[in-house]
Design goal:
mainly alpha, MgtE N-terminal fold, CBS-domain, Tetracycline Repressor, domain 2, three-stranded mixed β-sheet, about 65% helix, globular
Amino acid sequence: MSETTPQPSEGFIDELLRLIEAGNDNTARARIAGLHSAEIADLIEALPKEARERCWELVPVEMEADVLVYLHDAVRASIVELMDHRELIAAADAMDLEDLAEVVGELPEDLTEVVLNSLDNDRRQRLSATLAYPEGTAGRIMTQDVISVRSDVTLAVVLRYLRRFERLPDHTDALMVVDDAGAYQGKLPLSDLLTADPERRVAEFLAEGQEPIPTAMSESAVAALFDRRDLTSVAVVDDRRHLQGRITIDDVVDIIRMEADHEILKRAGLDEEEDLFAPVLASAKRRAVWLGVNLATVFLASWVIGHFERVLDQVVALAVLLPVVASMGGIAGSQALTLTIRGLATGQVGSGNVRWLARKEVAVGAINGAMWALVVAVVTALWFDSWSIGAIIAMAMVINLTIAAVSGVLIPFVLKRMGVDPALSGAVVLTTVTDVVGFLAFLGLGTVILL
């Protein structure tokens, strides 16, 4: 479903809003009809609620199915609410099976029944088979629209067979080769089919290194496999190695895009289904939870500071320098956290190498801590005319940067073992650690040395 399309420009959005507000529907409809379905979806997501509803009314009926597929979940749900059953059924009939599975899986139960009952028996059975696979697996995202041939026939027979089709399935780079029982044997590249001697047999051209993937493989693992092997398509098989479908590069682009959105939003404590123009109360409710969590961590840091009230009263310079220690630790920890979460997502980091990674990050944190501690110590000593304070902040920075680095590695593993998404809460936990350790080290050393 993915294609490279430019997003509507700010000027285009402003122009469309003016046309809608002026009631100039014919011009607005013509402007919308000239866009690709993906661009229309981007446009709808960029509009406030009232303008979004008016824009949807202007989308050509024959494009509605494609536009629905490109919309993000929350926006799609709001658009489906505007559609009557007849429109929804027409859109479902026009969708590819894998796209329909994605849309139907998010519909309310009553609407799901309406769509399923509108399908012919064959299409309904294939859709039910797709929906039976868990979300986020290869079976759920694969297309069943695949052409298979046997290995014991000649290329000439295959060519005659293909001429029976009006068109090949999208992104077909090879034909799947199966035995009489439907078990997968390999792939026949179209380039070989078109250029080789027609009297040679399919078995002679089975591509090497084209092992199938199981229906239970996760989306992330599929994307990583395509990346490592530079694949265009791959066969999907069941536990008996029977061909079930295929996954193509356009499906993988969708996965990568969704994972990127997930990563960005989770770092801010937001849901990947967050609608930019969602109602105020709904948006406030989603964000309130992590604001509350962050507030609790701030109070914890403040509680630590409160235990050093006496030294802060006597040495004001320590209060001035507190943000330096916490900020440097936060940055060092964030670097390690980002690399570790990325490593977990790509499969590069696991229980087998986490200790080595932790030792490496401790060394990196200690080296950077020592280097920048020297700089900060000199600046502090000259600023406050006190080498004692310079030494205190230098030692505190070395401690905090070292702890921050190792925490950036270990926190994602601990959260993952607890069943919590590291991308969602890792930054909050890390900030708490670096603030508490930084304040405790800095003010603790200040108390011991200066008082």
